[in-house]
């Protein structure tokens, strides 16, 4: 009887145990949040979202930047700091458990520096779920240095652009004193910009052309040449710099040096060699060096056989060397003069110098050759 009673009691206990409802299991989560200033982020909304199935929970940090949630189901979550209703920063792959709470620490200052590090190409290892690897003092110093250098570069670029644009506007207005001042200031901001020195050379040459005082003109052309030398020191393969440097030299009476620079320009940029020699010829005419000018214009025609204006100015420079037969009073042109005029008329029969060319040709030969070529083949104007 006793044994049966014991068995009956045991059976009753089993029935009682089996009738109990299984209890739900919940996980806990807590953490600390610091703002971008490195201080605890108080009263911030923290969004906790299930990653495996749908589920969204929210808590707020206290005055010390701490948050806690005790009623989370077991699973994987992402934790986000909210700002203006949007996720500002998130960490994922955080697993909740029955035993220990999941700890999530977020340092937005560290994350900001981590983003800067990525922008600067500095490799920073990532931490595991719920945390990021804390930056070392060396890493933080490297990031801060890179950010500072980048900010300084941006400020330098802005200052350089502002001064350069102001100088170019002054050049457009032919205010060469202001242009020189602005270009010099730009060169102080960044002395590695070849275009700044090249434009400074242009500004000095522009002011020299305005000057009526010989000594001042010479000084300005010397400064122009010095600026071009600096530009060429930074970019020696720029044909236009050699060309403009040559013009400054020629205007200053340094013809041999000018020829040397024009030769370099022509070698560096053969398609535009005719234009470079034409420019030299024009400067030599203005400085009353007609023989040298004719040599330059002849080189321009050799470099570009379809350069109409080069033929015309070659003829004009040679005309000054013509002689007059004392017996007949007839003009005796220098060899090549008539041919140059005929070539200009052929290339540019309706060009701006066509009537003058025909008049010169008639004076020298008593007739005008009317054979023409392609009326669009002629080139006019002075190029720089």
The N- to C-terminal Cα distance equals 126 Å
Strand order of the largest sheet: 3-2-5-6
Contiguous helical run count:
13
**Radius of gyration, Cα only, in angstroms?**
42 Å
Mean pLDDT across all residues, rounded?
Answer: 84
Task: Explain the layout of strands and helices.
Elements: H1 2-18, E1 26-34, E2 45-50, E3 56-60, E4 66-73, E5 76-83, E6 86-95, E7 102-107, H2 108-120, H3 137-172, H4 176-189, H5 194-210, H6 214-234, H7 239-251, H8 255-268, H9 273-286, H10 290-303, H11 308-319, E8 323-324, E9 331-332, H12 337-347, H13 354-365
Parallel strand pairs: 1-7
Antiparallel strand pairs: 1-4, 2-3, 2-5, 5-6, 8-9
Helix pairs in contact: 2-3, 3-4, 4-5, 5-6, 5-7, 6-7, 7-8, 7-9, 8-9, 9-10, 10-11, 11-12, 12-13
What do you see in this structure?
The protein is of the alpha+beta class. The protein has a domain of 83 residues: Immunoglobulin-like (Sandwich), CATH 2.60.40. Helices cover 54% and strands 15% of the residues. The strands form three sheets. The protein has a four-stranded antiparallel sheet with strand order 3-2-5-6, with no helix packed on it. A three-stranded mixed sheet has the order 4-1-7. A two-stranded antiparallel ribbon has the order 8-9. A hairpin with a 2-residue loop joins strand 5 and strand 6. Helix 3 packs antiparallel against helix 4, helix 7 packs antiparallel against helix 8 and helix 7 packs parallel to helix 9. The longest helix is centred in the middle third of the chain and has 36 residues. The N and C termini lie far apart (126 Å). The C terminus is likely disordered.
